[in-house]
Design a protein that fits this description.
This protein is an alpha+beta fold and about 325 residues long. Helices cover about 25% and strands about 20% of the residues. It contains 6 helices and 12 strands. A 10-stranded mixed beta sheet has the order 2-3-4-5-1-10-11-9-6-7, with helices on one face. The protein has a two-stranded antiparallel sheet with strand order 8-12. A hairpin with an 8-residue loop joins strand 2 and strand 3. Helix 1 runs antiparallel to helix 2. The radius of gyration is 20 Å and the shape is globular. It binds a DNA duplex (14 and 14 nucleotides) through helix 3, strand 2 and strand 3. Belongs to the WRKY group III family. One of its GO terms (molecular function) is DNA-binding transcription factor activity. Keywords: DNA-binding, Nucleus, Transcription, Transcription regulation. Pfam families: WRKY (PF03106).
Length: about 325
DNA sequence: CTCATTTGACCCTT
DNA sequence: AAGGGTCAAATGAG
């Protein structure tokens, strides 16, 4: 599949400003009680408007069939061959479709043998288990979790947890969907449910543009094994430093993201500027340290692409 | 009583 | 058809 979406130089500042606006609105969202209905509703409309504007501002590539902008609203207006008649069982179909098109991030979490923990450590969110399956060829079953606030705040986040075959102290955790609950540590209106501990304040969604902008190093590796290193902010006089070339489908990021939401944000950013859809990039967090200290991430894609990323990291 | 987990059945995707 | 993901009734814990 070819994307070839280099985007218009003139659009970059506009898109950048819009994204900053969206990020700021989301910061405000985290400070706002959902119970305060009017401000909450207005803020949602603001975010929605910004995302509409982003959709209009992004590069249009006629070769790309999927133009949906992945956003937190997860209402991806995808219309390639779906058209399912809304007779019955529609909801189920929608859920599956979302599953297929959502970004996915996998991390490995090592559990200290002496800690007595049965599963991976807290990741800052509260989860409710809704299923478990024995997986063919795997020694250990896979657990299925969804965000506790799925019904009350329409939060689409889910995760799967499976103990590694090779190392029983390691759990593979796959996250899908970005949290929309943005729960506050001292939100009295929300009953604490499964999580006995207070929520970790550091796990509030962070904002990648702000967090990684000062020092980001990217290693892009092609399917042929050839790789290039990019640094942001870029070194002067090297315009090639910030051009992502085609055929470089594996990208390693070195930075200090503070939450899993940072990874999702970066995936959104990539998809947005390439005009690709939400499922075109998936991530692997290639470290076995606790989430807040995870230093590396890897972004995977089967696409060939090219774009200039210079204006997004300074 | 309320809410979380377990577990077999069902549905969807490949 | 097989395997994976989700549902929902039954069960358990607090």
């Amino acid at each position: 599949m070819e994307v070839g979406a280099e985007f218009n130089q003139q659009e970059q500042p506009l898109v950048c400003k819009l994204m900053q606006g969206r990020e700021l609105a989301r910061q405000l969202e985290t400070k706002l009680e959902p119970s305060s209905e009017l401000p909450w509703s207005l803020l949602q409309q603001i975010i929605s408007s910004i995302e509409d504007a982003l959709s209009m501002a992004k590069p249009v590539d006629p070769m790309t069939p999927l133009q949906a902008l992945p956003g937190p609203s997860s209402d991806s207006p995808r219309s390639v061959s779906d058209d399912n008649d809304n007779s019955d069982g529609t909801e189920r179909r929608d859920v599956s479709k979302k599953r297929k098109t959502q970004m996915k991030w996998t991390t490995q979490v090592k559990v200290c043998p002496g800690s007595g923990l049965e599963g991976p450590i807290e990741d800052g969110y509260s989860w409710r288990k809704y299923g478990q399956k024995d997986i063919l060829g795997a020694k250990h079953p896979r657990g299925y979790y969804r965000c506790t606030h799925r019904s009350t705040r329409d939060c689409p986040a889910t995760k799967q947890v499976q103990r590694s075959d090779d190392d029983p102290s390691v759990f593979n955790v796959t996250y899908r969907g970005k949290h929309r609950c943005h729960q506050q540590p001292n939100n009295q209106s929300q009953m604490p449910t499964s999580s006995p501990r207070p929520q970790n304040q550091q796990q509030q969604p962070q904002h990648l543009l702000l967090n990684l902008g000062s020092s980001l190093h990217i290693k892009a590796e092609g399917s042929d094994g050839h790789h290039s290193i990019f640094s942001f902010p870029s070194t002067p006089t090297d315009p090639n430093n910030h051009i992502f070339s085609s055929s470089q489908s594996h990208i390693n990021f070195t930075g200090t993201p503070n939450s899993y939401d940072d990874y999702f944000s970066f995936g959104e950013l990539m998809n947005h500027h390439l005009g690709t859809s939400e499922s075109d990039f998936t991530g692997i967090i290639s470290a076995t340290t606790p989430p807040s200290n995870t230093p590396m991430m890897e972004l995977e894609s089967d696409l060939d692409f090219q774009f200039d990323a210079s204006s997004f990291f300074n």
